[in-house]
């Protein structure tokens, strides 16, 4: 056969194939796939015999009837989640304090005096007061709660309970254009947003997964709970008599967390109907059988894969940020530090939003971890007000054991009830920490979605703070 | 007290402006897009498309019908036609207008882009089936033929769009129009739905709400003045002739009518078992593949097992695993032979 004939034949065959496609009709691909599946199923029915397993299965059904029942489904879920959070918070207190006293109170002065003996003051300041202290802070505040929360969460997952939570919650999330499994990534976000973003891998539909990733930041993470509790205790609890203070400030913190859930649902709804409208969407949710959790394996994987992984990323970002924090408060131009320049310059702008320059600067330089926002705010306030006798010097973050002395510093910095409320709102609604931003980029592989996930909450935060502040100025 | 009021007003105005600019379909950006849409070229291409459609279906076409179809005045249409004639794309024969060969191949290129894009939206994205046509009407003027060909190649060069219309080949070939309106089918005839007209919109929505889709078998039961009764895959439907004429069918003279009707999976109550008949062709792309992965294929049996605490979704047992399916998906899965499941009591 000559070359010419060959190419002519090819064209002929392609032409015939094309015409055949039209004659066969549109369902041909599906019919082929369906018949393949049907044949496979037929063969399996004939050749595979299933023995036993029945009792276990009927026990599963009994448990399922209870945990998915109209009456007991939701109460069981809330109680279990509340227990997980309570164990995390109360269990983390002691090791966190221990780590802080070891890394911050004991090791920091030793390192500092050691470094001072052979380094110039600026180098030891940069490395020890800046880089080391930020890292120590992140580790001591972040590690214990995550090391408790993640294994507990993974145990529930391994047990087979979490898919039932998604199953029960799905109708709420469906109305918001999201997937029921977003209930899980949201809960995970209460521990750590970066881990919540990674957890969104369980959602296999592209659109719903992006929604879960972008809205995860509205879950108040472990690094922001202490800020909320501290500020609520000082400013909101302080409004009422000591008898009611605990209840009122707890109510305020829970209110902020619920507001975050509301934002997450509303933003999901808007996203699914606007920018994400065209992304492919599917729903699938398997309800695996219950099984006894593999405790050791769970401990290992959740500690290595989740806790250490997230912690490592946080530390990597905290070290350079710690240096920046030290530098802005120690580089002086015209006798005034960079930090003070920025704070003076941004104050008029910040007041419009009911915040102040210190808060804005703290949120910019403490971007690696929400945990170091309060220490940074305290350090900067002392720096700006020129208070003496508190803190450890410019560029050295600190926290105080007593709430009253913290309150004194903040009041001296000009804080009012409005500043407190708006800080709580802004702490809920601002850009994710850099660890989370980096994780979002890693998970989505898209600069566009990373940018949206970063900017959307901060724009919302400024809008909400603006209206709160202006209404406050109007009525107060 | 003046300042906060001013600031609040300014803030509200700023938020309002942002919403106004970005609001889907009615916002400024969307409107700007629409203005760009009605440019001269778009009108010319739409006219060519209309002329091709008339010729393909063997309908005579004149200035007024074309003007009506594009929703512009007859004067404007006359100018457009004169322009098309100057370009050598159409010829006049008395009142009737025909496409020249060049005009026809131009029209076929637009039709190809339009149908490939519809197919792409249906199979690869989450765009709802009501929006396929409108989005493709925009893309057909923006996407180049080369880009459309690349998309088609990635989808395995599909031969039909999701409404059942053939996609013209790259050489501009298209099979001859062989369908008839459902309204013309005689009692006792069996046919297959090959196309559901996507314009006007309200008829298309109504028909898809009834669960009619290309590929279904229809069996004409009764034709009366103002009422047509037929069985679609065994289920009885009644339509007015206007609605029935939006459905194009291809007679299947040798086929046996499907006797047994089907129900939808959403009707299955807990502890009932049924046989799967199929998945509606409105469930496409990723979602369809997912369901098939789970074993939702004709012939398998499926059992409703438990309802979630909020009522939707429902957990179904299939091939030994339990999967949750939402109600709107379960509506697109067809089943028959519903039986109450026998509970084996462990003795």
Automatic annotation (TrEMBL), chain B:
Major location category of this protein: cytoplasm
Domain of life: Bacteria
GO cellular component: cytoplasm
Domain annotation Ferrous iron transporter FeoA-like: ranges: 180-251, 263-337
Keywords: Iron, Membrane, Transmembrane, Transmembrane helix
Coiled-coil regions listed in the entry: none
Localization annotation: Cytoplasm
PANTHER family assigned: IRON (METAL) DEPENDENT REPRESSOR, DTXR FAMILY, TRANSCRIPTIONAL REGULATOR MNTR
Subunit structure and binding partners: Homodimer.
Protein name as it appears in the record: Metal-dependent transcriptional regulator
Organism: Flagellimonas pelagia
